[in-house]
Amino acid sequence: MYSWDFQFLWNYRYLFIEGIGVTIGFTAAIVVFGIIVGLIAGLMMLSRFSLLRFIAAAYIELFRCTPLLVQLIWMYYALPILSGIELSGVSAGLIALSLYGGAFYAEIIRGGVISIDIGQSEAGMALGMTPFQIMRRVILPQALKRMAPPMLNQSIIQLKNTSLISIIAVPDLLYQGQIIAHDSYKPLEVYTAIALAYLAILFPLTVLARYGERKLLVRD
Question: Locate the ABC transmembrane type-1 domain: which residues (predicted)?
Fold first, then answer.
């Protein structure tokens, strides 16, 4: 029977702390950039111009229908060859995960906007508002309440997706865990600790997302 020993992990606490910091910071960056990209793509999907809708749809389907791991590897190895611009692991990871998340945020935003009754837009036009003013002052504030829970869920998924950046040598929690496992020869304890660390970060966010969904259902 295997004899568990977690005491040695204390000697590697600084690597764990550094990895958690990188994971949280990286998640914050890709969520912000992803929402910005998603907002642009989502509004393009609602445009009356077919070219804009086609470009947005092509981007969304490309990133939703290809594996994130493939996207990361392509950004890190292929994009520098094609563009002539050298990318670090952090830069490639930021680009890939932001674009990947943006494709999902775009669909959430589009769905939130079209869920608002058309009468809201008609009322805005009757008051002499421009389409941009209607979207900014009338539609988006109402849609944001409906978009918040699924966007939080997608952000939780983005946090879990950051574990893939370890393959391109970004020193996140999993990458630091791999270093510790190779140094200590105790992978079971190391990866169990990593799983518990992710659980400690993600569980409160999951509870918050469920609470938001219930509040939304009650209000509707």
Answer: 20-209
Residues counted in the chain: 220
- The per-residue pLDDT for range 7-18, each reduced to its tens digit, is 999 999 999 999
Beta carbons of 172 and 163 less than 8 angstroms apart: yes
Using DSSP's 3-state secondary structure scheme, residue 178 falls into helix
Instruction: Tell me the per-residue pLDDT of 63-107, one tens digit each, with 9 for 90 and over.
Output: 999 999 999 999 999 999 998 988 999 999 999 999 999 999 999
Tokens of 54: 């086609």
Q: What is the CA radius of gyration of the chain?
A: 21
17 Cβ neighbours under 8 A, 6+ residues apart: none
**Alpha-carbon distance 109 to 119, whole Å?**
19
Residues 201-212 pLDDT 10s? 999 988 887 887
Distance CA 146, CA 108 (A): 9
Cβ neighbours, 10 Å, residue 122: 11
171-209 in b/e form (b: 16+ CB < 10 A) is bbbbbbbbebbeeeebeebbeebbeebbeebeeeeeeeb
